[in-house]
Amino acid sequence: MPESPKPPALDLASVPPIYILPSHLDPEALHEQEDLVFRLGGSLTYDSQEARVFLGKIGQKKRAAFDLRARGVWTEEALLPEIDHQYPSRDNHDKGQPPHKKARTGWIERDVKRRDLKRRRDSRSSTSTEASTRSENHPPSPPPVVSWPNLKSHIVVLKLAWLESCINKGHIVHYKPYIIYSGKIIPKPAGETSPKALPDPTTYVKTTASGSSSSHHVPKPTTSILERAKADAAMHQSHPSTSATSHLHRRRFGDHAHSTSSHQAKHPPKLHRTTTSEFEDLANNPLPPLPDWATGRYAHYSCCRDTPMVTRNAAFIAQLTKIKESRLLTLDDIGVRAYSTSIASLSAYEHHIRHPDEITRLPGCNAKLAALWTEWYHSADTDGERSIATVRALDDDDDLRHLRLFWNIWGVGPDTARKFYFERGWRDLDDVVEFGWSGLTRVQQIGVKYYDEFLAKIPRAEVEGIAGVILRHARGVLGVGPAQHGGPQDVECVIVGGYRRGKTECGDVDVVLSHRDEEKTKDLVVDVVSSLEAEGWITHTLSLHTTTSDRGQATLPFRSTGHHHHGAGGFDSLDKALCVWQDPRFEQDSLAGLHPDEASPNPKSDEKKQDQKNPNVHRRVDIIISSWRTVGCAVLGWSGGTTFQRDIRQFVHKTKGLKFDSSGVRDRANGLVLDFESPRPKTQNALEAILKGQKPSPPPDLSRPGDQWDDGDTWQDRERRLMDGLGFGYRPPEKRCTG
């Protein structure tokens, strides 16, 4: 009985040019994947501009797009074109049908040659078995044919698991379930410089069909890497411009200075040269001891250490902040995160840095940061005069100056600012008003209208005055009388944000309102805003959210969509109102210096004032409502610096498997709401019970030794118990200034 024919071997010849992204792959694994694609007949390329299918060990769209930009491939996210058989597929080839007309590109010609060689080889090897194959009653069904869209102007990034799945099944599987990112190739935006990737420690040889023998010889994997390296070394001497690069290089803001030949040349890293005098100085004055927070298990979490508002190294940190801002305006999320971590670590360091070795031993700080400090320190004699060359270039960059102008518009983020400047060609606010006013959102229109006023800082006394007015109106709508002020029936008003961290001047005013009766906080934001509008304090209500009231004031579900954390833009799931505030008192009221609680303004009833323009500055005010059950979460979520808030969420996720936001705490494993704020015994067993979803009960006899009950029920007590229960410990808001 003749043997059954073997299934056809996996052939990647019909796949458009393939490029292996090196992210998260060590050199050996990268070479193995490249050799595998080559052995399977794939059109492997080391030219990212030529590739149309990218395989990578990544999982996010942003990272995929960033890796492409780092290799000079600029794209915008787009769906893949419909299948039009522009690319030759195996079914046309096997049937002897000529491929459709297509653009004459080098990689398509190489694919055709490679398939012709394979077809002739396969036809010779299959002649002897053709008769036996025909005699089979049930020949094996052919594998499904996968057609590729026209990728002449598009690219697709697939998970590396797609290649593994093809190998396991013995044929090309459909690519759609493995798509990470698909995009349309676009020209490099004006003013941008393609990121220069770091040199790859290994080298490659670009394989072509013409370089293959007639027998389609495949190099052995044990020797192919060395052979390619030797061949590539020779090729680099004669064609240095064709060397391939990999390894992600962090994207830099595209200033024009980098287009000069001096900046195009590769410079070795700047290393600190320790002189004899420095050695002697270190011997006589050794480095200060490393802080305890820098050596612990959770050293890299900024929520586990004190970070004051005023730091000993503020001048150097100010330079790093400018670099971080430039990364933000180039949409480099990875760079922003890295600099944010470094800045938070340096801000917590209690010593004045005098040697680069002090930096490299801090969490989140590396040799690159130490080199920047060395450059900064030796640039002048005083901190006020010192600077970094990169920062000076950023300060002088015209593109960055325009981007910052648009970014400072209320309601405009970095991505929108770049569209205003690079895509629409706007250069100032007059261009925005003249050419794009109708296309702005209402928030952006208000941001343009009061641009200069919103940039003006708010003194602490004025912040307190605004909060006093809000508290007065909250008491009014809830019917809280003077006799109840300061008692358990009173409204709690907490000024959060930069004010609570100790800033002398604030950019806006954030106020959290709460009440011990949960029924009174439901839809409270609507009544308070209406009362303030009626009295003339709020001129515009830009957004009014009743998200928490709509779900019965419950903690945000574990799986939710459409909401952003405070750390990711200032928003969360609590009831809130974003308002434009203006003091309606002017002339005699303002001159009298009356406190908002002492005055009872009603500008609408004052006909004389209606005819006059109010000269008082407009302010941005956020009114947030929280139920008493989770007021600690709300106050904590709106009081810390951005990095502090980010690290809280990461810390509780990694160490306890919890999800924290301003509406409460949930167990990620079962979605159970955990109450760390209510009064509880001062024992470890109490926390263990809470983690299991249990509510500790007070001991029967508090007079016995050891029976300690934490029964304070102010919002400060609830925030303290929350921070202790989450595991990183309480620290006052003045020590949460990570930036």
Automatic annotation (TrEMBL):
Keyword Phosphoprotein: no
GO cellular component: nucleus
The keyword Nucleotidyltransferase is assigned to this record: yes
Gene3D superfamilies named among the record's database cross-references: 5' to 3' exonuclease, C-terminal subdomain, Beta Polymerase, domain 2, DNA polymerase beta, N-terminal domain-like, DNA polymerase, thumb domain
Signal sequence annotation: none
Compositional bias of kind Low complexity: 125-134
Gene Ontology process terms (BP): double-strand break repair via nonhomologous end joining
Bias-annotated ranges (Polar residues): 204-225
Entries under SUPFAM superfamilies matching the protein: DNA polymerase beta, N-terminal domain-like, Nucleotidyltransferase, PsbU/PolX domain-like
Ranges of biased composition (kind: Basic and acidic residues): 85-97
SMART domains: POLXc (SM00483)
Main location: nucleus
Record's subcellular location: Nucleus
Amino acid composition bias (Basic residues), ranges on this chain: 264-273
Region annotation (Disordered) ranges: 85-148, 192-274, 591-618, 692-716
Keywords per UniProt: Metal-binding, Nucleotidyltransferase, Nucleus, Transferase
InterPro entries per UniProt: BRCT_dom, DNA-dir_DNA_pol_X, DNA_pol_B_palm_palm, DNA_pol_lambd_fingers_domain, DNA_pol_lamdba_lyase_dom_sf, DNA_Pol_thumb_sf, DNA_pol_X, HHH_MUS81
BRCT domain segment(s): 151-180
Example of a GO MF term: DNA-directed DNA polymerase activity
PANTHER family named among the record's database cross-references: DNA POLYMERASE TYPE-X FAMILY MEMBER, DNA POLYMERASE TYPE-X FAMILY PROTEIN POL4
Family: Belongs to the DNA polymerase type-X family.
Record-given protein name: BRCT domain-containing protein
Species for this entry: Exophiala oligosperma
